[in-house]
Design a protein that fits this description.
This protein is α+β, with helices and mostly antiparallel strands and 126 residues long. It is 41% helix and 20% strand.
């Protein structure tokens, strides 16, 4: 697979910017916890593109993508999400999905789940 020009393609820069401007309440809340290396010192990006897909949040250092799923991600969206996840797995990118409602009402639980994927098992959580 040709990995050249797959990550954060400049051709979708305007679309990524528009998505950032139109972010949901859940995305804004989660971003407030991920930005500026606040979580375990790792750098996350918002609306980061990988091939034809744009991830809500992505950390290249640990190849972790995070998706905030709203009501549009019901049964009809499941097939698209599965196809997308399979594509991203080709680049060794792990995807965590959270419902918007969980992000808004159980932010601490969501952050703990993300930390489980960031912190190696042999390092203590601070």
């Amino acid at each position: 697979m040709n990995k050249k020009f797959v990550f954060n393609k400049s051709s979708v820069k305007i679309h990524r910017r528009d998505l950032r401007k139109a972010s949901t309440d859940a995305e804004r809340k989660l971003w407030s916890k991920l930005r500026n290396r606040q979580l375990a010192g790792v750098k996350f990006f918002r609306q980061y593109s990988v091939g034809p897909y744009i991830l809500d949040f992505y950390c290249p250092a640990i190849r972790l993508g995070i998706e905030a799923d709203g009501s549009q991600h019901d049964i009809s969206q499941k097939e698209h999400d599965t196809k997308r996840t399979c594509y991203l797995e080709q680049f060794n990118i792990n995807i965590l999905r959270f419902w918007d409602n969980d992000i808004l009402k159980n932010t601490d639980g969501v952050i703990l789940k993300i930390l489980e994927h960031i912190t190696p098992p042999n390092l203590p959580l601070n």
